[in-house]
Amino acid sequence: MKRINKVWTIAALALIVMIGAAFMPAPKKITVKGSDTMVILAQKWAELYMKAHPEAVIQVTGGGSGTGIAALINGSTDICNSSRPMKRSEMDKLKDRYASLGVEIPCAKDGITIFLHESNPVKELSIKQLSGIYSGKITNWKEVGGPDMTIKLYGRENSSGTYVFFKDNVVKGDYAASCQTLPGTAAVVNAVSKDKSGIGYGGAAYASGVKHCAVKKDEKSPAYVATPETVKANQYPLTRYLYMYLKNRPTGDIKAYIDWILSPEGQKIVSSVGYFPVR
Amino acid sequence: MRQISILIVFFGVMMSFFQANSLVAQTKVEDLKKEQDTLKEKVTTIRDVISGVEERLATAEADLTKLTRIKVSGYVQAQWLHNEAASSYPGNLFQVRRARVKFTYEPVNGVVFVVQPDFLPGSITLKDAYAQANDPWLKTFSLWVGQFNRPNYEVEYSSSSREVPERSRVIRALYPGERAIGAKMEIAPPKLPLKIQLALFNGNDGLTITDASGNSINPTNNDFDNAKDFMGRVTYAFKLGNIGGLTIGAHGYYGKIKANAYDAINSDYTYNKKIDNIGETLKRNWLGFEGQLHLDVLGGLALKGEYIFGVNSTPGYYATSTVVSPMTSALKNDTLTLTTLTTKTTTARPAITRNFSGYYIYLIKNIGKRHQIAVRFDQYNPNTKLAADQIGTAKWDESSSQTENKYTYAGSDPVVATNAQTKTVVNNLLKSGTADITYSTWTFGYTYFFDDYIKFMIAYEIPVNRKSGTRDANGDGNITSTYKVNDVTGIYDYSNWIKQNVLTVRMQVKF
Asked: Which listed CATH number (3.30.1120.10, 3.40.350.10, 2.40.160.10, 3.40.50.80) goes with B72-328+337-510?
């Protein structure tokens, strides 16, 4: 009888331990998904935050702003990184699903940089010229003061926020069919660095091994290269905010992480990867 | 001498060796050249193959680009329904409520074609079929032509997103079938949270309009008059910091509908006017005010509502007389013999213009990622000019001025008159009825989002009819209607609450 009691006691204890373990707060994983432009920045944030907070688990993936926003709407990510503001139709979907407008947090500034091959003598281009180039109306470098060479276009996929921003603010119409779409700004930079006749665009943080082309608003305006000063002063014509989107106001671990991102420590990282802080 | 001979032999051997080696080397060079040629050929072949593949890839890519311009989405709603109304039989059943597939094709940026059929067991209905052109310059204007949702908040709010199974009663009454055929201009400046919708429709879409014999004179979405109806809606969204947002708006309807009758009566069932031409139109004008408040209070919280009021006309029908059995002739070259001339006269019904009002309020709360609860209260008063105790009372008594009316509106059998007998019936029997009864409905819904594509909903709807007056000595004052279930006739007496609650258990799969 005693033995049976002992077995029951052990079993009960084991059960209590198991139930206790089940209810113990597990380390909360924060998922971040979206803009490819912001991947480097987001990874750096996550890496340094996890170093300082070993209990935190942050998973960062890209895919493009559109993909990130879709993931936020369908609930498969906690934070969405987007290099463009959420569209009205996307906001409506979020409202329909969560009865919430979501939360928009501008977390960095970026200057969309125009990449040219280092040997390309062209130094500056106006928005109108860029529009002509990317819409296929200008097809040879000699039309914009360069050598007699066919222009090779490199751009982003249509799920990318950079694609949308460039289309809305520069191309202002359809991209030329000859524009080769590549997955991520790094791929665009890589392609341009190997192609003497190439031109590409993307976030400033990726621009190594290629030449930065100065951009002017119109023919009469001065041309600027994206630098912290020109972006902060809104002189560089292709300046944009980079955002984080959430379904609801952040609480707990997510709030702590976002507060840290917006703190001087987090904003220092923005500068270190080549973007521009918002605070 | 011997040494010289040895040297000569040595050199001879060496010469032969080098010659042999040189021959071998020459052969090797030739072999290498051959190999080089072969390699060149192979490279050329591979280059050609790659070029071919590239060409094919380019074609495939172009085809793929075209395909990516076609989007297919949709959802299926299957449900089990338990209807507590005594007239409902079977009282519980499985249903496919909606099975919609939406095809969107965008051949060039900004131009969209949409077709959305609804596949239900035994029928396929076309829900949407329109072309949409967006302005590429200001990105503000878009023109829609075809069949699409009328511009109203609850109408445009997708059934796949709605928190309760069906739209509120006032919306179902004013916009049956939700869609209409016409053209719409949408103005939505990208930098402003403002949206203006202006639309022109046939106006009779989804309305059931019958002639005296009960045949539909408005087959699905075909117009039955020349009057076109105008609709306008404007909304503006305010941000309330990080806590949420408020959207306010208004919509108006300015339309007309063919009277299709020689008499028109008012909302309170008094005589309005004599109509000379049944093509004359009557008013359908109303105005609605809406608001949607979204707050972030421990997760999403929404309060949404709309109030609509105005006048709405329902066409009537006119009496027709037909000769039923005028003559017989049995023999060849025989003279026709007129035996009995029988005239069959169908009943007529005047058109009516009713003053109405209606509203709905939703309270929605999301709990975590997966749970949502919703409560809706809606009311539809189809006739604001009649108090409850006036419903069912005959009001129209124009016998003195309506001498030409020789038919009756009462009863369901047509009046049959012979050529020798013309029946004269005084038409003072038209009463208000079930179409004038106010309904208030509570709906409670709970939704569980299983994953991105599947959700389950359980909802309970409690419609409460406004009680009509009780029957007076003349037999007026209350409303009744009969129904037959399993060959047993039952009576609904609207001076009491009639239980018509509905429980819905629904599963939705979206793709």
From this structure: 2.40.160.10
